Amino acid sequence: MGLKNNTLLKGIRINRVIQFLTYSDILLLSGWGLVSPIFAIFLTNKIKGGSAALAGLATTVYLVTKSFLQMPIARYIDSRKGEKDDFWLMGGGSVIISMTAFLYMFAKLPIHVYLIQIFYGIGSAMSYPAWMAIFTRHADKNQEGFQWSLYYTMTDLGSALSAGLGGFLATQIGYQNLFFIVGIISLAGTLFLSGVVQRLKTKG
What we know:
By secondary structure, the chain is mostly helical. The chain contains seven helices and two strands; from the N terminus they run ββααααααα. It has helices at residues 16-33, 39-46, 52-79, 84-103, 110-138, 144-173, 175-192; strands at residues 5-9, 12-15.
C-alpha cells in the first residue's frame, strides 16, 4: 500500500495502521485491566447469590460463546475481498465490549451476569479475528515478530498498571463508578480504530 512510516518510539518506525491498532488495544485492555483482577470479588460482594462458582461459570459462558462464534466470523472475513468488512466487525465488536462495562453497572443477579457474558463473548468473537487479520496484513515486512512483541509489551504494561489501580479505585469510588470508567476508556480505545479506516485495502 506504500504506507508512510511514522515514528512510534525513538529509533523505531512503524506504519500508522499498526500504531492505531496498538493504541486502541492499550486503552481497551488497560480499561478492562481495572476490573479483571477483582471481578470475582465484585461478583461475590455485589451480585445476589454471587460466589466463586459464579465467577468460574461466568468465564465459561464468555469463552464458550466466543469460541463457537469466532471461527465462523473468521471464515467470513477471509472469504471477503478488501478490509472494510474487517473494520466494521472489529469496530462493532469493540463497541459491544465497551457496552459490557456499562451493563455491569446494573447487574444484580447471576442471570444478568450470564447474559452480559454472552454479550461480551459476541463482541470479542467479532472484534478479535478482524483485528488480528488487519494487524497481520499491515505488519511491516521483516518486522512482524518485533511489532507483535512491541504490541504485547505495551498492552501488558498497560494492563499491569491498571491491575494495581483497579482494587484501589473500587474501594474509593465503588464498583458502579469503576465500571463506568472502564466503559469510557474502552470507548476511547474504540475511537482510535477510526485512524486506520482510510488506510485499509478496499480490494482483495
